[in-house]
Amino acid sequence: MAGTVMLIAAITEWSTLTGIGLTLIALLTGVAAGFAFDEAAVRVTSVTARGTRWAPLARLVVAVAVAIGGAGLVALAADEAVSDRSDWAVLALALGGGAALVAMAFGRRQVPRPGSGIAAAVVLLGLMPLVLSMLLELRSPYPVEAWTADLRTTWWSAGLLAWGGALMLALRGVPRRHVQP
Q1: 118 in any annotated domain
Q2: What's the CA dihedral at 127, 128, 129, 132 to 10 degrees?
């Protein structure tokens, strides 16, 4: 949260940082949604009667709240230099959904703390297209300039599929694993 506030302050002070700053805020939204699934007692919750569905759904609700908050922050940070604030919000929601889907899949495999691995992957994979587009002078997949209809549809679809997949995994619950003596 402090990093996001510092990025918003930097974006408002120096407009040349808008592209990288908004991208980092959107990536931090995905990272935060992935950390919502960290659970030290994952083996305990997987053998309780309600824990197989209740625990993943509770974490998914937190991830949704974090993603909505991140989308609001990135839309707030986008100023008049950005053509459409809603594109940044869609990007943040899609990244949050992707991180939630991966974290939910790790949770089904009973990985106790998937957040740090997801954070590293989201940041590295998220910065790669930004850096390559700057170096090779290609069009960025991020809404630094106005998105085309195809790119907007792709991000909307990715976000809807990710959140839908995460919800499906949460409703299926974690498979029970009984510890044998």
Answers
A1: yes
A2: 120
